[in-house]
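To: structure subgroup
Subject: Chain for Friday's discussion

All,

I'm putting the inputs and outputs inline so they're searchable in the archive.
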Amino acid sequence: MSRQKNRVVFRKGKKVILRPICENDLGRFLVWENDPEIAKFFSDALPIYREEERDWLRKIHKDKNDHVVFAIDTIKGKNIGSVGLHRINWISRHSSLGIMIGNKKYWSNGYGTDAMMTILEFAFNSLNFHKVNLSVLSSNPRGHRCYVKCGFVDDGCRKQQFFKNGIWVDEITMSCFQADWKQVWEQYQSQ
């Protein structure tokens, strides 16, 4: 019970908590990022090694001007993934967003949507971003539906951008503008 009481909570959504990533998360992330069922949604096709994960964690802790990344925990405290704002442009007020729900038991149950809405609330209401971008592989229709539900619209398509599992897949680029997202946020809050 005391662990729950002393938990770090940066942002709380309806189903998830966003908190800083720590060294203890890296083992889970390494397993998830190398799981073929999860990795098929990433643009990178190469394995990820423990030292790469450590270097990545050191980099995100050192350079908050470039990216802000969070662990995604359930309200009860189970770590299920990560979400972050990357390539932040503070002058033009935009960034790219990336998310991974690594614990497959939590797929298609609203946890990804809640994590997305929670980080978008932070990006638009706290950081005053004008726009958030992302890209999704055409082979990830579940992810695409989630992003649309969160207020993203398709910007374009890079045809046959990645070779995944023996086939060429398109990369769909999407964006969400602060002004358009506010209505989506109000609807989400009223549900």
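Points worth raising on Friday:
The chain has one domain: 2-190.
The beta strands are 11-12, 16-20, 68-74, 79-89, 94-101, 131-137, 153-164, 167-177.

D.
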